[in-house]
Amino acid sequence: MKPRDPSVEEMTLLSERLDALEKELCFRIETASQGEQELRRLRAELREMRNSLSWRVTAPLRRLSKLGRKLLRARPDT
């Protein structure tokens, strides 16, 4: 049995569907690209902050705070 040729209407519908899918894919790629750019920017900002003097100066306080929280969690209830 020979397959039938698609009609003009079917071809038009398929073409429109492909166009819609292409637009949606382009939008998703653009959105992902913007998300990656934002992530790179935030990582650079975090690196900059961690290299700052204030971050290094307050490091011992952050460690003490972390240790204190850990000790309080480990303390048995009385």
UniProtKB/TrEMBL annotation:
<protein>
    <submittedName>
        <fullName>Uncharacterized protein</fullName>
    </submittedName>
</protein>
